[in-house]
Amino acid sequence: HSYHEQLGTENTERDIEDKPEIETERVTLIKERNRENQLKKKEAKLEELKQMEEKYLMDLKRIHSFINVDMKKSKEDLEYPVQMPESLKQMEYIFIGNFNDVFDFHQEVFSNELISGLNNAEKTRNLLRKSGYDMKNRYGTFCSNWTKSEYILKKFDQYFKTMENNLIQKYP
User: Fold this and answer.
1) What is the pTM assigned to this prediction?
2) How many CA atoms lie within 13 A of 42 on its CB side?
3) What pLDDT does residue 115 have?
4) Three-state secondary structure call for residue 84
C-alpha cells in the first residue's frame, strides 16, 4: 500500500466520481480562493486610491501655500527677497483662477469623505455621485483657465524660477 492509500488521502478519478462531495468541496475551495484573491486586489486598489488622494491633497497644500503665502508676500511685502513684477500683479487673479475653490473642495469635502468611506462601497458611490457636479464645475473652470495660466507662467518664467530657488533655500 502506498503512503496516500494508508492515510486515505489518495483520490483517483473513480474515487471522485464515486464521491461527488469531494468535487463539490474542491470547487468551493477554488471559489473561496478566487474571492480572497479578488478581495486582496480590491483592497490593494483602494489603498492605491487612498494614497493617490493623500498625495494629491499634499500637492494642493503646497501650491496653496505658495499662492496664498509666498506669492502674496512677494506682492505686498517690500522686504520679501523676491518682488512680484508689477505687470504680474495685474494678472495674478487670472493665474490663480479658481485654484482655491479646487483646493477647498478637496481639503474640506472630498478627500476626507473618500478616505473614510473607502471600505464602504455605497458611501464611496454616493460621494462620487454627490460630488460629480461640483467636480465637473470646479475642474471645468480650472481647465478652461489653464491656457491663460500657462501663458503667464511662461511670460514670468524668471520670476517663478527665482521664487522656486528662494523657497528651496528657505525650506531645504
Assistant:
1) 0.75
2) 10
3) 87
4) coil
